[in-house]
Amino acid sequence: MKQNVMIVPGVGGSGPDHWQSWFESQLPNTHRLTGISWEEPVLAEWGRCLKQQVKMVEGKVWLVAHSFGCLVSAVIAADIPEKVAGVLMVAPADPRRFHPLGRKRCIDAELESLEPLMPAFKLGLPGLLVYSSNDPWMQEVKAKAWAGHWGLPTYSMSSAGHINTDSGFGAWPEGLTILTSLMQNSEKSEPHVQRQPLLVRKAGRGSVLAKVRLETRKQLGI
Description:
The chain is of the alpha/beta class and 222 residues long.
């Protein structure tokens, strides 16, 4: 069975030496999120583009995300679970570091953050959340908490920083083995995880992405 992969980078877009770019060169049927401003992490806009592009792919898609891309992927996995085969979230960024209109200068500033807009329920999908013990973008305890909200098992990497090019993760064979193992196991059996209630997962105006977009419009004053 063909398994599709969608690479969802974080801020900056994951350059040619990043492990996500290496994954893309190693895996067939791989797509990458496009059409956004990589230096402007606006969740509503990234989510809109990712949702459109996932829906354009024939069949279900594995979301392979890094940093801010994990937040976008969580929203879309909650919004259109019927199109998402599973998720590999690596070094998710703390949603408290972002405002609906982009990155916050100070995490403690009295500004609204993305935290209350994120899905805080089990996604009901196979997957894994990989975190680092010294990630500057997400404390270990918070990474575990979000994994619990999303119903994902965790894998800890010791002192791996933000698991990006700066911390030495270009070609990443271990990560590729993790992903292929997840994909193979998902083919063998359906996940026995109760999906979130239909009332929470509803599409249209009540969907997770719709709420994000509404809050973004409020912040823009439109």
